[in-house]
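ok trying this again, last paste got cut off
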Amino acid sequence: MKYRVHRFDLRMTADQSKLEQFLNSLQGEIAAIIPNVGLGFFWAHRVNFLLIIEKLS
């Protein structure tokens, strides 16, 4: 098996349609989606980017 890791930068409030288009454009099977969570203003948690692992046949 071969795997490919994609980094997807996003803003959770505005990039839902871009994420949907990206996921639908992948050719392989999605093995995992790993969010990178950081602290923002006033200790609010926010997702900076996603690591998307694609399993290729």
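PB: full thing came through this time. The first strand starts at residue 2 and ends at 9.
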